[in-house]
Amino acid sequence: MESAALSRIGLAGLAVMGQNLALNIAEKGFPISVYNRTTSKVDETLDRAAVEGNLPVSGQYSPRDFVLSLQRPRSLIILVKAGAPVDQTIAAFSEYMEPGDCIIDGGNEWYQNTERRISEAEQKGLLYLGMGVSGGEEGARNGPSLMPGGSFQAYDNIKDILGKVAAQVEDGPCVTYIGEGGSGNFVKMVHNGIEYGDMQLISEAYDVLKNVGGLSNEELAEIFTEWNRGELESFLVEITSDIFRVKDEFGDGELVDKILDKTGMKGTGKWTVQQAAELSVATPTIAASLDCRYLSGLKDERENAAKVLREAGLKEEIGSASSGIDKKRLVDDVRQALYASKICSYAQGMNLLRAKSLEKSWNLNFGELARIWKGGCIIRAVFLDRIKKAYQRNPDLASLVVDPEFAKEMVQRQAAWRRVVGLAVSAGISTPGMCASLAYFDTYRRARLPANLVQAQRDLFGAHTYERTDRSGAYHTEWTKLARKSN
Ligand code: 2AM
What we know:
Layout: E1 9-12, H1 16-27, E2 32-35, H2 40-51, E3 57-59, H3 63-68, E4 75-78, H4 84-94, E5 102-105, H5 111-123, E6 127-134, H6 136-142, E7 145-150, H7 152-165, E8 168-169, E9 172-173, H8 183-212, H9 217-227, H10 235-243, H11 268-278, H12 284-296, H13 299-311, H14 318-322, H15 327-360, H16 366-372, H17 383-393, H18 404-427, H19 432-444, H20 451-462, H21 479-486
Parallel strand pairs: 1-2, 1-4, 2-3, 4-5, 5-6
Antiparallel strand pairs: 6-7, 8-9
């Protein structure tokens, strides 16, 4: 019955990501139908398909025509705004869909929405995937990192397409079946949290080099280019080196210095930190990067605080910290501090994923997650190969910090790391991400913490009891009575 003219797959929601992903799929040889609520975007996509090489894209102008233009079992990707628009889009299409057909949501959706939609779809016999897509506009067009979770059958139906569309690295395409339920969205969310951490750590490295080291934008561009040839090789380090080179078209100097220091955000970093708190997992580096975005938003208050504290006698300490600084050594120290801080940040993100995987029985494969992040996505980095290998060596690794290879790297870098953080603290340059990572490391690695005192306090004021190091059982002590009696 089905004619050859039917498309292999469909994509609805032709904003930037949707258009680029549709053209990528078509370019890999899979005929695709496209649809958008505002139909001018369908025409825009068709124009691009023609210009970019006569790609097999079929424009559809109604939900019904769109659904009926697909081969069965139908696979239909939606890339509309997360939340209610996804529900509205599903409602518009599902009317024409049949049992066995599949909906793939490629948006940055809250994982519980996906889990609700999976059961709603099941009631109609439809299959459902929540697929994280990372890589921005460029990634969507030329190869993103894809994190599909939900129905395995739905994944299997389009595995060939995803395998060709995803970014390719030496150990395969940057896609894998993540797990059941909303696992694909959850993994993408944590990926974004890790991305917040990476960006924060890079901005701190920049701050220290610029304000303590006195480096110019030109020098910074060269340093980041150089770093991108070594252990820090990554998309974010590479684009950072480009940023320092761009001149301001409206005046002297480089554009970076004219950008308002207020960071925007869309919410996935906040969700990551909220989930970490829910699951009692420490993610201080990611939390610090989120807090820093909040503080950056208080531009007026910060300007006022700078003024009030200057008037109150606060002296900038940068001058004394930076006088007589050995630039070359500072650059090398900051590189090491950045790398060590990154390891701790990834350890936190991976441990959050592990806690969720246990809670939801997702059975996440952390080595595979690190592998599919090696290409296409914003956090892509050579370093992820080391993470992949760490989890291959030991899938039950308690923390990246105790992987023998990473442990060695942390120890080698800790002196430099402490120098950078110490210098920044004494210069009054805040490095919340690096400090959070270092404190995480120093807390995690210590066999004995001052938590004994907190337990004693809790027992004193709330009779919460405590355990002892030398004998089993729960104890309670009449602290105040004993203390005052002995005086
Ligand atoms: P539009 O072009 O018709 O606005 C990103 O905003 C994408 O989500 C766009 O393709 C947009 O379609 C789509 N979108 C947003 N809200 C939607 C809704 N309620 N129903 C369908 N598509 C929606």
